[in-house]
Inverse folding.
């Protein structure tokens, strides 16, 4: 039986309202620049509780991030920028010892 266990939980994208084609109502779409941190918190809590029930003690929760870049054109030239988005968390746990 393994002494350590790691679990990765993935964050979904935050939803935002956007106008439909030709302005006929609104729809929810994923925002490519923001993670749904509320959902991520719930996923982390669920994973930690599951690990506890399996006999593990959580020893760390580390965020995982992904890097992105965007570029565009302006009248006088181009521009670009980079940014990172939290895309989940890695949870590490150690099996409880029975003494």
């Amino acid at each position: 039986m393994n002494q350590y266990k790691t679990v990765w939980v993935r964050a979904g994208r935050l939803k935002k309202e956007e106008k439909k084609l030709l302005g006929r109502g609104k729809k929810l779409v994923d925002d490519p620049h923001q993670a749904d941190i509320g959902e991520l918190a719930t996923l982390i809590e669920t994973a930690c509780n599951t690990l506890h029930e399996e006999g593990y003690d959580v020893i760390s929760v580390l965020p995982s991030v992904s890097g992105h870049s965007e570029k565009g054109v302006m009248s006088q030239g181009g521009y670009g920028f980079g940014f990172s988005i939290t895309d989940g968390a890695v949870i590490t746990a150690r099996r409880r010892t029975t003494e």
Summary: The mean pLDDT is 87. The chain is about 15% helix and 65% strand. The two ends are 17 Å apart (CA to CA). Residues 37-53 form the longest helix (17 residues).
